[in-house]
Amino acid sequence: MTKLGHLKTLIVATLVIAATSCSQRQPSVSQQNANSQPAAKISAEQLAKAYGLDSFGQVDAIRYTFNAQFPGVNVSRAWVWEPKTNQVTFEGKDKDGKPVKVTYLRSQLDSQPANVKAEVDPAFVNDNYWLLFPLHAYWDKSPTVTDQGVKPLPLGNGSAQLVSVKYPADGGYTPGDTWDLYVGKDNRVEQFIYHRGGPKKPSTVIATWEGYKKAGPLLISTDHNGTADGNQLRIFITDLAVKVAGSQDWVSAQ
């Protein structure tokens, strides 16, 4: 598994959430249970394992299309990520609506054209966090992960275990971000609240985690419905497939 790398400032108008620092690590998280609930505490490692952490080394490539719909925005970005080499292929449109297709190594980002550095790669990190956040919460070195016990769900009825992933006030695209994950049975995220650490918008995103599918060894939520600063939001993943080691065939998610 290669690193996504230490990230700097993100300003991309079509992004819903700016990703934070993401460097691979050994587990180092603090956990607290504020209400002393009887439910077992959930660590970042346990959460990541539910989404395929132990088998991630089998994945040679992930193909997916990130779709975002909210007032004034309707974007679709197609990606192929090869995590062992950190090669990225992007197909979509630039900020002016012109078609773009590019393949690059993230280890050689400094030698890429300005649009790749300023637009494509930040979009890749954003979309990859939506795709694989439970894994990033474990891979990243910087966040503090706390189990805050059973809390009411932010959308609808019911309750789930609140696992809060808070990034520090420095480093990353948007320092100080917090991802509050509401975790249900089998350590699957059911809903979340994203709190942006800086002044850029949206400040708060509340959304479901649904449409779960298996893509090879990975478990991925493909549909998120909710609000961004009170405006209706939908983020969804299509054309999801993986290539596993020893095969050249794409295995579609089911």
Structural notes for this entry:
With about 250 residues, the protein is mainly beta. The protein has a single domain, classed as outer membrane lipoprotein receptor (LolB), chain A (Clam). Helix content is about 15%, strand content about 40%. The protein has helices at about 45-50, 115-140, and strands spanning about 60-70, 75-80, 85-95, 100-105, 145-150, 160-165, 180-185, 190-195, 205-210, 210-215, 220-230, 230-245, 250. Strands 1, 2, 3, 4, 5, 6, 7, 8, 9, 10, 11, 12 and 13 form a 13-stranded antiparallel β-sheet that branches. Residues about 5-15 and about 20-35 have low confidence and may be disordered.
The largest β sheet comes out as: 13 strands, antiparallel
Average predicted confidence as pLDDT: 87
Distance between the termini: 24 Å
Structural class: mainly beta
Percent of residues in β-strands: 35-45%
Question: Based on CA inertia axes, which overall geometry fits?
Answer: globular
Structure annotation, total helices: 2
- Enumerate the spans where pLDDT stays under 50 for 5 or more consecutive residues: 5-14, 19-37
Helical content class = 10-25%
User: Quick one: CATH class?
Assistant: Mainly Beta
**CATH structural fold name:** outer membrane lipoprotein receptor (LolB), chain A
Provide the domain count. Answer: 1
Radius of gyration, whole Å? 17 Å
Order of helices and strands: HEEEEHEEEEEEEEE
